[in-house]
Every structure is written in C-alpha cells, then in structure tokens.
Amino acid sequence: MIQCLSMKNKCIYFKYIQGGIHLKIAMLGWGTVARSLMDQLKQHPDAVIQTAAILIRKPHPRTCPEMTYDYAAILDNPEIDVIVEMIPGAEAAWNYCSQAMQAGKSVVTSNKAMVSAYFSQLLALAEKYKVQFRYDACVAGGIPWLRTLTALKQTDPLLSIEGIFNGTTNYILDHMERDRLSLAEGIAQAQQLGYAEADPSADLEGEDLARKLMISAGCAFGVLLHRDQFAVQGLQGLCAQDIEAFLAKDKRCRLISALKQGSSGMQAGIEPVLLPFNAPLAQIRDNLNAGVLRTANLGELTLIGQGAGGPPTAHAVLTDLLEILNDHPVSPLTLQETNLCENPEAVRYYIGTQAETAGLFAELIQEIRRSGGRTQLWTVPTANNRLKALIAQARAQDPQLFAARIEEEAR
Ligand SMILES: NC(=O)C1=CN([C@@H]2O[C@H](COP(=O)(O)OP(=O)(O)OC[C@H]3O[C@@H](n4cnc5c(N)ncnc54)[C@H](OP(=O)(O)O)[C@@H]3O)[C@@H](O)[C@H]2O)C=CC1
Ligand SMILES: N[C@@H](CC=O)C(=O)O
C-alpha cells in the first residue's frame, strides 16, 4: 500500500512493507561517505530505507544495478523521496540539490562547501517547495553539533562557540607531535584514513573550517557569514622544529575556530593556537573534534567525538534520514546579515620563520632562538591587529612562516 503523507504540494511516498515504513533514497556520489552510508543501511535492524539509485559519473563503471549516470531519471522517479548528496565542491552539488527540491524531493547533504556557499538559497528553496533540507553531517562528523546548536538556542541565546572542527588537521598536529611525522606524511595518512577532503589543501589551509564556521554561525546565531568577512589561517609552513619549540614550552598546537559575541560585536577567527598541556582542547587527539558552546544559563557545554571519516559522517546522514522518515519537523531558520569586529585584546604569538623576516618583529620580541635554519620568536603582548598586519607582511616575504597565537592559561 502506498500512502501519501502531507508535505503540502509534493508527496513523499511511504510504503508499508512488513509493518515497517519505507523511504526510498538516491545517493549522489560513491566515495568514502556514501559507501559507509550503504554499510550502515545494510546493518540497520529495520530495513526501512532503500537505496533506489546511486548517481556516479564516468568513467566509474556501473558495478551494481542501482548505479546510474542519469540524474534526470532520478528526478523523474516519483518513488524517490530523498536525494542524499555526498559529492565534493559547491557548484555541481548546488545544481543537483536545487533541482531536487524543485522536483519535490527532500535533500540530505554532507557537503559543507555547498551549504556554506548557498545556505540561504537552500533554506529558501526548502521553504518554497515544502521539502526537508538537512545537513547535520556538514560539521563535526558524528557529533550532533548543528542539531545541538539549533535546539539550545531556542531556550537560551548562545554567547560563543569554539573548538576543533577539522579531523584531518587535528590528526596531523597530534601525529607530528607523537610520531614525529612531517606535515606531508601527516596529510598522506589522513588521506588514507578517509579524513581529508578531495582537495586536502581545503583542510590544511583552513577553508574547510571556514565553511563549517559559516554553517555553525547560521545554526547558533541565525547569522549569514560571508567568507570575506573573516580571516583564516591554517597549518601552512608548520615544520618539525616548530613542534619541538612548542613542546619545550609545554605547549601543544591546535587549530581552533571561534565565534563569539564581544562587547562591541561578533568576532570570528580560525587560527593555530598554542595551548598549555592541561587545557581541555589540548587533550583532543587523532581525528576527534571538540565543540564548546556557551549560553547564559547553561554555562559551558563540550561535545567531543569522531570528527571525520566515513562511519561518523554517514552516521550523521543516517540520523537525518531517520528524522525525515519519522516526520520530525525541522526548526525554521532564517539568516540575517551581520558585521564582524576585531578582537581588541592584546595577544602573544609564536612565529617560526627565516632570519631575514624575523627582523620585522624586532620591537616585539620577548624571546628568540634558532633551530635547524629556522628563527623562532615569541612576542610580547601586542595589539591583535598590529601583530596580524605584521604577520601578513612577513608571510608575503616568507611563505613558509608559521604563526600561532599563544594561550597563556588553560581555560
Ligand atoms: N570524508 C569525510 O570525513 C567527510 C566528508 N564530508 C563531505 O562529504 C562529501 C563526500 O566526501 P567523501 O565521501 O569523503 O568524498 P570522496 O572524494 O571520497 O567521494 C566523492 C564522490 O563523489 C563523486 N563525484 C564527484 N563529483 C561528482 C559529480 N559532479 N557527479 C557525480 N558524482 C561526483 C566522486 O566520483 P569520482 O570517483 O568519479 O570522482 C566520488 O564518488 C564532500 O562534500 C565532503 O566535504 C563531510 C564530512 C566528513
Ligand atoms: N576533511 C574534513 C572531513 C570532515 O568534515 C575533516 O578532516 O574534518
């Protein structure tokens, strides 16, 4: 029996099979996340979700009957309720997902490049065509981060979010320290483990984090951040001598994203931070992610879990699918434009660079040493914007410069 449930102008087809409700999906992509999703669908005790089609692209061969190169046929198939989009990059995915919603199909995606680039358009399409749009897998892999932000802000406005949201770079930092891997070896291992983006420079240079911060900002604060509103610094230039210098000072480097309501407005930043060994975020190992949120009444809440890789990401996709199947409503989200401001506090930085460039910081040096041809300096507390401007100038001279903000005490 087929029953048409009320999704206003378009129907989702539910089938009652042996007493269980059945949802038909089409997967877009057949990579790390899609294969893990297929495994989890097969393991699920109630066979409630059926994969009717898998969109692949040539020259990938059709290795099972569900595989197709024909997206139009997927869109035309009225039995397919949900498009599960798991490909890299914004543009092709946006074409697929926008067409899907216009065809009355709900969309579940793990694609943060697309969601961050087309966030308000995707929300508007879902509203217009009365379909569901779910994207929990886009941030922090298996941690229910976005759904927690969305739920909490309804009772208590969020004050800040921060944490570690890229499994690849956390894995690299952890294993450069523990196994003395080089940056290149760390990237290669993270790729093998299925943590890295198709283009791993998105992980290394922090663009993946920028996308995740933009999506988190929408769910936490209802704001639409644009990529050109905030600076991002990744791990480019980091070398073994830098790691040795951090250890000698009882510091551990982590790539931290933060978004907070300051006294003069909202501040956003993504950069490497040197944490004392006993800081909570310094304990985050391997590909784990840790999201810390603060609200006025709840205080601080930290969620730690698998942040990258097929199984945790597919788990988040499956959770979204089951919510659609169970007809859980999505909390309405509208995004407002906002202005960001600079952190006005004085900060200290570590800078690893070549001898010639180090001279730019002459007035600000608290400590300086040389190691293996690298000049390593620790600055005195200095106005944030002055230091950032000097670092940008120095990096133009030495692309291998690595800079990290120093956090003095564990918070
Ligand atoms: N891996 C992870 O830990 C996480 C990934 N994500 C996101 O999930 C998505 C998938 O990631 P992942 O599975 O790791 O990526 P993979 O690179 O492993 O797989 C991507 C798949 O998409 C296919 N594909 C690429 N472009 C197209 C296209 N235009 N049409 C049809 N198929 C296409 C690729 O096909 P082909 O083989 O032919 O290139 C491949 O099968 C990405 O958006 C990623 O950012 C999100 C959270 C975590
Ligand atoms: N490349 C990403 C994958 C998950 O979002 C990461 O390493 O975190």
TrEMBL record:
Any one Gene Ontology molecular-function term assigned to this protein's record: homoserine dehydrogenase activity
Lineage: Bacteria, Bacillati, Bacillota, Erysipelotrichia, Erysipelotrichales
Pathway stated in the Swiss-Prot or TrEMBL entry: Amino-acid biosynthesis; L-threonine biosynthesis; L-threonine from L-aspartate: step 3/5; Amino-acid biosynthesis; L-methionine biosynthesis via de novo pathway; L-homoserine from L-aspartate: step 3/3
NADP found in the keyword field: yes
Gene Ontology biological process: methionine biosynthetic process; threonine biosynthetic process
Catalytic activity field: L-homoserine + NADP(+) = L-aspartate 4-semialdehyde + NADPH + H(+)
Uppermost EC category: oxidoreductase
UniProt keywords, alphabetically: Amino-acid biosynthesis, Methionine biosynthesis, NADP, Oxidoreductase, Sodium, Threonine biosynthesis
One Pfam family per UniProt: NAD_binding_3
Superkingdom of origin organism: Bacteria
Protein name: Homoserine dehydrogenase
Family: Belongs to the homoserine dehydrogenase family.
Residue ranges occupied by any Aspartate/homoserine dehydrogenase NAD-binding domain in the UniProt entry: 29-135
EC number(s) per entry: 1.1.1.3
SUPFAM superfamilies (alphabetical): Glyceraldehyde-3-phosphate dehydrogenase-like, C-terminal domain (SSF55347), NAD(P)-binding Rossmann-fold domains (SSF51735)
PROSITE patterns given in the database record: HOMOSER_DHGENASE (PS01042)
Residues of the Homoserine dehydrogenase catalytic domain: 144-322
